[in-house]
Amino acid sequence: MLVDAAAATPKVGSLIYFSTKSGNTHRFVQKLGLAAQRLPLGRDEPTLHATAPYILITPTYGGGEAKGAVPGQVIRFLNDEQNRRLIRGVIAAGNTNFGEAYGLAGRVIAEKCRVPLLYRFELFGTDDDVAKVRKGVEEFWKRQT
């Protein structure tokens, strides 16, 4: 029996992320070792245009307030209809010092875009966070096929 190699390979979507000048989210994404595209830091730079399903990774802003929790660059990216249509899940960075608002940007995006909040991690994440997210992302994309 012949098996089509392309059909046997699970479809893996991409990661798109935003990271501030602090670089915490960028360091986390680098540790994942998965293909990822970074949203531009400057508000005046052209934003990305997603061409395939993706998981969004974003930091949380605002010090615990819902207003301002999602970075402006992420809002701008998600205001594009195609980018919104292709999002499949969200992972949020945050700070546990903010209690219930920890990773709030992820909850806001998940609710507004009707996608799952897949994971939250603190600052630039631990080795355990990296392992869980890497495994979780791979399993998530396998379930999407």
TrEMBL record:
InterPro entries, sorted: Flavoprotein-like_sf (IPR029039), RNR_Ib_NrdI_bac (IPR020852), RNR_NrdI (IPR004465)
Transmembrane segments: none
Top-level taxon of the source organism: Bacteria
GO molecular-function terms, A-Z: FMN binding
Family: Belongs to the NrdI family.
NCBIfam families attached to this UniProt entry: nrdI (TIGR00333)
Function: Probably involved in ribonucleotide reductase function.
Alphabetical list of HAMAP family matching this protein: NrdI (MF_00128)
Protein name, per record: Protein NrdI
Encoding gene per record: nrdI
